Amino acid sequence: MFRLLAFSYLFFFTTIAMAQGSLASATNLPDSVSATAADIMASLEKPATQQKVVTPPMLTGSAELGFLYKSGNTKSGDIKTGVDLRFEKDAWLSLLNVDLLVKKAEVKDDNGDKHFETTDQKWTVSSQTNYSLDNKEKNYIYGNIWFEENDFSSFDNQSSVSTGWGRHWYKTPKASLWGDIGPGFKRDLFKATEVESQNSSTTWIVQAQALYIRKLGEHIELKQHLSAKQALNSSENSIYKAETTITTKLISTLQLKFTFKLDYNTKVEAEKENLDTQTAVTLVYSF
User: pLDDT for 153-174, tens place per residue?
Assistant: First the structure.
């Protein structure tokens, strides 16, 4: 019995010594340093799990809404709304923008009764798809389509298609600059007047665009977009546009957006202005 007990104690202490030696060699400690109970327990802990990489969604978007109402001698209301969608996967990037401006006013019918109805509206649809030519997403080829129906201008509607080459010229944590250029085709449908019937004009164009984005603060962003649709025939209408937006975040998904637009057409009706401006303040919901 004594021999069995002595053998058991000898086996127990030999096992502890071997465990201490293995722990010391594994942690590159000198032989003179003994492992404590805390060291042994720490060696048995499970390694920390790696954090999951959050993949951004392929489809994102935003919707905006603004409203102006007048009452008194005249009653009228303006509604400004729009939707932006962005789809990005691998080398592909697609953008879709729909913008609508509706003006409602009080009008009299033949019987003298007043009705509140739509008098003018402007809606624009534009879409562009980019395909990156390199892994750094510097150079890309693009396809662009644009359509606008504007009761406030000399045109019933205008449209264009374009394709070409672009480049992400500049990128920092606070600012980015894109620019592209390419050939295209444009069609203008002029309104009928007292002396002329409705007619259309088509021409080849060179389209150039630039987009500059800069963060002015943690929750404020500036965007400047410039575009030109230059007709190759000098007798045809050319279109130049500029849009400045400043967006400030109110909460995580709600922003306040200030927009200022310039639209310039080189060929318009005699009683119309070449330059149209638009200023709007809207609420934007991102999703």
Answer: 889 999 999 999 999 999 999 9
CA distances from 180 to 102, 142, 148 (A): 31, 8, 21
End-to-end CA distance of the chain: 78
All domains of the chain, ordered by start, with CATH?
2-43 (no CATH), 59-286 (2.40.160.40)
| Phi, psi dihedral angles at 101 (to 5 degrees) | -125, 120
For 216, the token pair is: 């002015």
The 10s digit of each residue's pLDDT in 77-129 is: 889 999 999 999 989 999 999 999 998 887 777 777 777 778 889 999 999 99
Residue 277 and residue 260 in contact, taking contact as beta carbons nearer than 8 Å: yes
| Dist. CA 187–CA 200, nearest whole Å | 7
Half-sphere exposure of 158 (CA within 13 A, CB side): 23
Sign of torsion over alpha carbons 189, 183, 259, 266: negative
Strands 139-150 and 175-190: unpaired
Pairing mode of beta strands 139-150, 155-171: antiparallel
* Contact status, residue 151 vs residue 120, Cβ threshold 8 Å: yes
Q: How many CA atoms lie within 13 A of 6 on its CB side?
A: 3
Q: What angle do CA 58, 159, 61 make, to 5 degrees?
A: 20
User: pTM for this one?
Assistant: 0.76
